Amino acid sequence: MRAAGRPGWRRYLWPAAYSAIGLVLAWIAVACGGWWRVRAGALECGGGRLAALAARLPRRYAFSAITLGHVILGLDGPTLDAVRRHEQVHVWQYERWGLLFGPAYLASSLLQWLRGRRPYLDNRFEREARGEAGRRIDATRGREPGRQGNRP
Ligand SMILES: [Zn+2]
Hints:
The protein is α+β, with helices and mostly antiparallel strands. It has one domain (8-142). The chain is built from 6 helices and 5 strands; from the N terminus they run ααββαββαααβ. The protein has helices spanning 8-13, 16-31, 49-56, 77-97, 101-114, 124-133; strands spanning 34-39, 42-47, 65-68, 71-74, 148-149. It has a 5-stranded mixed beta sheet, sandwiched between helices. The protein is globular, with a radius of gyration of 15 Å. It binds zinc ion (ZN). Residues 86, 90, 126, 129 line the site of zinc ion.
């Protein structure tokens, strides 16, 4: 599942462009009353106006959490706790695919749509995340202690 043997810094470098976008959004969320914390090697950010903003989205675009590289944006702490394993699989996918993850994800959705399937639920990356999230997370990535900013 994970990029086996890839040195620590490389797993952060390969998807860095996505993480940079995530960091900008996290910074905006924190500036709007949100908080951040580090869990399992990823920055989690939630709360503040992020939840209120997400609640205003049309149902079709509603989300509880979204992962951009090593940044996971979620509605609130309990939501992030609940979806951590799923979103951590997406972090691994970013580490594996790097810059190609975005185009590959969209291509998978397009392919499912062309086949008359559900672009989100049948997307191969989402199916993989749902499948892996149900299994035990590896001990190294599953540890919980980490830095924390503001209040979760
Ligand atoms: Zn997902």
